[in-house]
Please model this.
Amino acid sequence: MYYASVGPLLRAFDIDVEGAALTERGAITLPANIQYVWAHPSRRTLYAVSSNGGPGVTGDEHFATALAVDPATGMLRPYGDAASLPSRPIHVSVDATGRFLLTAYNNPSGLTVHRLDADGGIGAPVAQAANLDTGIYAHQILTTPSNRCVTLVTRGNNATSNKPEDPGAIKTFAFEGGILRNLASIAPGNGLGFGPRHLDFHPSKPLAFVSIERQNKLYVYALDEETGLKREPVFVKETLSNPKTPASQGAGPIHVHPNGGCVYVTNRTFPAAGDGARQYSADGEDNIVVFAIDQNSGEPKAIQHIDGRGVQLRTFGIDPSGRLLVVASIMPLALRDGTNLPAGMMVFRIAGDGTLAFARKYDVEVGAVQQFWSGMVTLP
Model:
């Protein structure tokens, strides 16, 4: 199934891989605007975090909700009571054992760990040490493949006219019984000029691929039992086809192909300030970059930049067979010629070499909200 949110609405779509098509099956409304969703390892439950806050908006209502998955239809229903969260959640995941729900918060930067009941319900939070180093502007929280370490990707912030740059880092923690302990802060140059957003792990090699949002880079790190990740990257690559573009840019989500042959990351133009920040920003790249991964060294090489057919490509998913990629743009964009580029879900076929071919776009009416999250889930 492919799921995509519009504000508090979570829509479910059947996937026709051969036909590269989506068919909406139904939808469910959550307590607030959906920020992120993650599947339990059993795939019988999804966990959605929601908030009436958003980019630049603090909000005062924040929730984690367990959603039971109908294995025949993929339809969802709330399971148990929603858990109240301390601030706007930006990312959520589940550890490999399925016993703990991990949530990241961007402002103030932080994290929580909740116990999960045997039936998938959200239990009590696990008390953590007061000295956890959660950096500045956390954006993603994941356990490493061994499940013995947690990574918290903290983006930092660019300098402004009245504030210096906030450094970014990948914070790593030892993880046992839901309790975290500081391990390392992976921050080249003390985190200045380093603004990571998301990472993904290679399915068979001890490598992490990191999208560096604020610098439009791809970093590759080797995994390390002592610190989670090695201190220095083994490879650094550009994500932009034209790194000298004057437009305001950011790298986006990142996913490794299920067979480990390629890694995909988006580039996103930040629209110029205007009505809901939905005005045209010239000369930027809103595309998907395909990097072929050398299976001996792990080095990624850009082999394709393909137009994403939308603006702000914030999330995407790859079907388990590795033949289809669906990316969602979060909002419409007013173009210079007076026309409007709608928000949408764009479907791409994946060739044997990992390159993409555009198949179709489904326009999405988002109104005053955004299509903030989307992703693939295999039914149980």
Observations:
- The chain has no helices and 31 strands.
- The first strand starts at residue 2 and ends at 6.
- The chain has a mean pLDDT of 95.
- The CA atoms of residues 330 and 372 lie 5 Å apart.
